[in-house]
Amino acid sequence: MRVPADDNLTAYADLHADTVAVLTEWAATSPAAAAARDRTLDLLAAGPVAMSRGHRPGHVTASALVLDATGARVLLCLHGKFRQWVQLGGHCEPGDRTLAGAALREATEESGITGLRIDPVPIDVDIHPVSCQGGSLHHDVRFAVLAAPGAVERVSDESAALGWFPPHRLPEPLAGGTVQLVAPALAALRRAPLRPVP
To answer: The Nudix hydrolase domain covers which part of the protein (predicted)?
Structure first.
């Protein structure tokens, strides 16, 4: 497979190593997540290229379900391109050193909220087709993120809207796979305090 010349794959080496370690050690939250984890580990056997959006067979992405300080609401964005409500997240970047760090960066950029805290243990892995590179797969590793009390969101260029919703009353149309993040995110919040830096 030919990798785009502008893709500096050595910049993904630390992120690739972290992702392999995180997924190898992870106790999956469901049978579907376990199967997706195993497929993602197979993808990662290709090396750091699997972290880059230029890898057409598929690439790892990072996303986050943001909870308010009490866990009573979740923050979702109405995605500007496919017009569905979804958790925050996206492609890994060459400057990312850890997968949790990539998810936290994406959540911060897309929510406009500073001081978010993350649990570095994934809550889900999901694989879905996307239009990248004319057709590819996102191997999306998802994390729980906590906003500070009084956090105020700000819509980014990638979102049509942002909104806080009770976990039992999520908006429609909702992207497939988003609802399955609520229970493990709330469990992560109960399990351990979320951290400011991965």
So the answer is: 57-187
